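Hi F.,

I've been meaning to write this up properly since the lab meeting, where we talked about keeping a consistent format for the predictions we share between groups. The idea is simple: the sequence comes first, exactly as it goes in, then the structure tokens exactly as they come out, then a line or two of notes. No screenshots and no reformatting. I'm using this chain as the first example so we have something concrete to point to.
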Amino acid sequence: MGKKRRTVKKGILLVLIGLMLVIASACSTKPTSSNVGVAKKGEGKQGATLTVVRLSDATKLDPHFITDIPSANIIYQKVYQGLVVPDKDFKIQPLLAKEWTVVNDTTWEFKLRDDVTFHDGAPFNAEAVKATFDRLLDPNTGSPQREKFSMITEVKVVDEYTVQLLLAYPYAPLLSILASQEGSILSPKALAENPEGLADHPVGTGPFVFEQWKSGQEISLKKNENYWGKKPTIDRVVFKVVPEDATRLAMIETGEAHINDQVPVTEIERIDASDKMALYRTEGLAVEYVGFNTKKKPLDDVKVRKAISHAIEREAIIKGVYNNVGTLANVAMSPKVNGHSDKVQPYGYDLNEAKKLLKEAGYEKGLKISLLTSDRKERINMAEVIQSQLKGIGVTVDIQVMEYGAYIEMLNNGEHDLFISGWGNATGDGDYNQYNLFHSASQGPAGNHFYYSNPEVDEMIEAARKETDETKRLDIYEKVMQKEIDDAVYIPIRNYEHMAVHSKNVSGYWLNAANYLMIDDVVIK
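Output, unedited:
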């Protein structure tokens, strides 16, 4: 293939353009709060501190080891940046890379900015990019993100501000994965001197510099006075841990805090009626589901999994638990993600079929299992509804409610039976969903908490990530999602709608479709 230049306005390959256009058109956000917009110059307090209240603390702050959106939300596009970035419509834009070239199907070349410095004074250049990805791809690092970038065989420094990524095979959504938090570029100085320290002291190139982490209480960032781009309007942002839903809302109402990006659906009416608060809503890329640990008895029996699937009335959960926020999911991939198919349908509500399957599996007299959930109010409510529904087929459910960090640890260690979870697709592409959730190589922290392993599924997922013909690629995803449903790996529940509540004296923030809080343009009046 001949060399073709890719800038913001010019295309690379037709297939890649088509892919990105599909992602972009599928992922536009629609805020419903009129108060959230771009701030006007001169508005607001200079030197203000933005206070964001959250349900849980971060688990870690190293992008190579973060496996949850709440932790990534602290640092993504704040402390850390990648080579490229999705805009509000999820179109890929330059960031630390000024432009890129597809030299051939397996060689991507990036021209880097020459005016960027890391927070610790280290220069940003091709060597920094190489150091970041070499560490990520080194098996000895033990990063759960490694498999996401396993198609990269070498990071080649061409000159000080030019780097090439050499791939093992053509990988159409490369830009989308580079634009996710996993693609963050880390300080080479920090990597050389104290890589373990990045877990609680991140060092990037972003508009905010890490200040302090008081474990279980708050994480604070301050404005990067030496930032290479447009500096934030605010001087500091503090992410406070406030476990109680009512307390978080009260803090917004009184002005003690400015944004709460984890809003209970039960509080929508109260927020709408308030003259002090406003609600931001946007469709998301994430899906919520009930998952099975397919390695643990009795859930290692597909008949038991199918029986439970038939016994859960999903529509009742959307209406009763979620107050119709979000929509009924058909698979573990949002309709807004490139690769979704509405032809794949989950098992229908059928108690007679459920009882029949349990009898065939040898559990005519019933069985007992545990159901793990984090301490989010809606998920606890969902667990109680599922507990009640499964009683109808003789399945006794013991609900385990865990603080978020302990919940993640339990999933990563495979200590659960049934679990309530969600997958926040960070790229808008089906590969991020399928490879991380269902490939055998992703079992554990990388995302496959079903501990599901099927060689046929692995083969299809690998074929889809290499396929450059979009029609064929979509066909593969449809087939592999049908196989996952046939194997009753999970029960799809809800396509997310992301929400945030804010004080009416705050403007300029937004949530992207992956549910990251974007605060560069925040103004506090």
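Notes:
The two ends are 54 Å apart (CA to CA).
The longest strand covers residues 277-292.

If this format works for you, I'll send the rest the same way.

G.
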